[in-house]
Amino acid sequence: MTAQLVQGMPKVELHRHLEGSMRPATILDMFRNNLGMYRDTPLEAILPKVQVTGDERSLPDFLAKFEFFMGCIKSAGDITRITTEVIADCSAEGIIHSELRFSPAFIRQLTGLGLIGAVEAVLEGAREVPSGMSVSFILGSPQPQGPRVAWDTVRIARDYMTAGVRGVDISDDTRIVGLGEYQAPIEWAKSEGLGVTIHAGEAEGPESVRTAIERLGATRIGHGIRAIEDSKVVRLAVERDVTLEVCPTSNIHTAAARSYETHPLPRLLDCGVKVTLNTDDPGISGITLGHEYGVATEKWGMGREDLLQMNLTAAAAAFVDDGRRRDIVAALEAWGRCPR
């Protein structure tokens, strides 16, 4: 029943990292073509290096997967190919609006490509989006590189707003540089009309969620599940109408949550927090968005109306113009009216 429900359901996803969505077969192909490595190695042999095995115990363990495979990317053409494939994968999952985030600075650090070159290569890969689907891009600034790089990132995001970049993010391990250090560039980005979503409440506790909301003005929080540890922060999220981009399987893989059974998503919903379902890094976690819907139905007893409501929540929080938002909502509501 779950498989049938998920297969035909139009979906909206707000939190998916482009770099973490690479197909493992593409990673192997790029290692072979760009570096002359793993020519005689079967795909199964490198999977433990690019996907979660169960031995990971923290967010740094999870992020180490990126450090292994990002070096296989060597050209703008590689970035364009990755983008085209990720969009095709989203479309195949029934996603009618996808918000793909990526970090130009992270790409530069591990591949040598310039910030602007990375953005333009991504946008080239999104030149032909499947009919009925839309894509917005969010530029992330990785925590370890500090506020200076954040300024570079938000300025580029502003320059490419008319080309499909609709928001900004502070990502990576938020414990390295305090979120408050990013207040000035994020406030500027918001004043320029960019959407703001901030990674918080994952590696750090509820105070990071408070900082993201009160000081950085985030309307969306990437993950945010540890807000549940402080009732005042939960109340703040409700009062400020903030939407959490929750990624259940990723939360377990990074040890932000212990298990599906103890994951706080159902409790957050019960408290009135706006919650959406997302994959985070499906290539690394080895999942699809449909898998996360299966978790919601099988582990938490959610039904058709619950999943529809989370998609409508995502549509309301999406970084899109009002016309496209109406189209997305209409598609979701049409599905909701279909006979059971």
Q: What is the element string, with H for helices and E for strands?
A: HEHHHHEHHEHEHEHEHEHHEHHHH
**Content of β-strand:** 5-15%
CATH structural architecture: Alpha-Beta Barrel
Morphology call: globular
Q: Kindly state the mean pLDDT as a whole number? A: 95
* Strand arrangement, major sheet: 1-2-3-4-5-6-7-8
Could you describe the largest sheet, including whether it forms a barrel?
A: 8 strands, parallel
Helix content: 40-55%
Please write the CATH class name. Answer: Alpha Beta
- Number of helical stretches of at least 4 residues: 17
The CATH superfamily bears the name Metal-dependent hydrolases
The strand count comes to: 8
Task: Name the descriptors.
340 residues, alpha/beta, TIM Barrel, 14% strand
Give the gist of this structure:
This protein is α/β, with parallel strands linked by helices and 340 residues long. It has helices spanning 2-8, 24-35, 43-50, 59-69, 76-92, 104-111, 115-125, 146-159, 183-191, 206-214, 231-239, 248-253, 265-270, 282-285, 289-300, 304-317, 322-337; strands at residues 11-17, 95-102, 134-142, 165-171, 195-200, 220-223, 243-246, 274-277. The protein is globular and about 50 Å long.
